[in-house]
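Shipment paperwork, digital attachment
Item: protein structure file
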Amino acid sequence: MNYLVATFPERFSAEAAYTTLELADYPQERVSVYGGGYKTIDQLQALYDPFLGARREMQRMLVWLVPFGFFAGFTFNQVTQIQILEGFSALDNSIIGGIFGAIAGGLGSLTVGGGLKVILSGKSGTPFQARLLQGNYLIVVTGNETQVRQAERLLQNQSPLYLQAYEDE
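Attachment content:
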């Protein structure tokens, strides 16, 4: 599902944009208005969760970085023959090195995949929530890519503060 979020500074401009979509015969069940007197922040939260996207990206990176980290740690220990734990064989020490490499790969997926941002910022809300709290109005249009592009062309003429298309997997 694709969606488009347009931010307008006041109710009048949001209603004018909604009317523009209505006059262009855009399906009204795919258009929502958020702000004072319309849908609330809680209803918007279900639409878009940036932390869910970060989690998906982290999981994708885990699939590649953990095995690569294990292989790199194992190979590095085989080449250098470092004794991590005395009394263990060279193979055992290499396996321990591989485990350390896998842990490093997991930490890499956490930081590069966006998980660190989620951990440090907490779930303080979506970027749209801040706009609503500032008194702005949001028009959210859902649909396939063609419908979203059509709505984007129509809404660009209404001079929104922000206009951003999103693709949800």
